[in-house]
Write a structure and sequence with these properties.
single chain; mainly alpha; Leucine-rich Repeat Variant; 73% helix; elongated
């Protein structure tokens, strides 16, 4: 049965004598409308201008449904850097461990701002598996990436990374040294809390 025919049948079921049938029909119609809205948002995300795509992206993020998050993950491949960065921010807020793969893949993005946002997002997951991904970023040529990596590693709180962080206290950029000092402190505090 095609969607229009299903919609027609459900609309007629809203007049059923049984209240539970009417309720079930209303819920089914609501899900159909939600799906149609999701499809419209996905099309705007894929084919719209930057402002339209960003608006659709944020609306999809608000929905938070699995299909909506799939569309947000697909936006990581957008030709528009603003859309890729926005997608990372939305996935960061979702904090779903299944999103670690796509967020890790975007660390190779050609745009520096997108990479920095992705590194910061990964730190928010506080997942020890990310240590191997984030640790090498302390050696990146970009001071912004090194600073974000230090922050993310500090949030992970794993003392294994302390030697790497201590070495970065000699970084030529004060921004990086400040964040490294903060990260060392965070790890020390985290270690002290787990000992108690």
């Amino acid at each position: 049965m095609a969607v229009p025919a299903a919609r027609q049948a459900l609309t007629e079921a809203l007049q059923d004598a049984d209240a539970e049938v009417r309720r079930a029909a209303a819920e089914a119609l609501e899900r159909l409308e939600s799906l149609a809205g999701l499809e419209r948002l996905t099309r705007a995300l894929e084919a719209g201008t930057a402002p339209q795509a960003l608006g659709a992206l944020h609306a999809l993020g608000e929905l938070g449904a699995p299909r909506a998050l799939s569309a947000v993950v697909a936006a990581l491949r957008s030709p528009l850097k603003e859309v890729r960065a926005g997608a990372v921010k939305i996935l960061r807020a979702a904090r779903d461990p299944r999103l670690l793969g796509p967020l890790t893949e975007i660390l190779d993005d050609p745009d520096l701002d997108v990479r920095v946002v992705a590194v910061r997002a990964l730190g928010d997951f506080r997942d020890g598996r990310l240590l191997a991904v984030l640790r090498p970023l302390l050696q990146e040529s970009s001071a912004d990436v090194r600073e974000a990596a230090a922050e993310a590693l500090g949030k992970l709180g794993d003392p294994q990374v302390l030697p790497d962080l201590v070495a970065r206290l000699l970084d030529p950029e004060a921004l990086v040294r400040r964040r490294v000092a903060w990260a060392i402190g965070e790890i020390a505090l985290h270690s002290a809390d787990t000992v108690r």
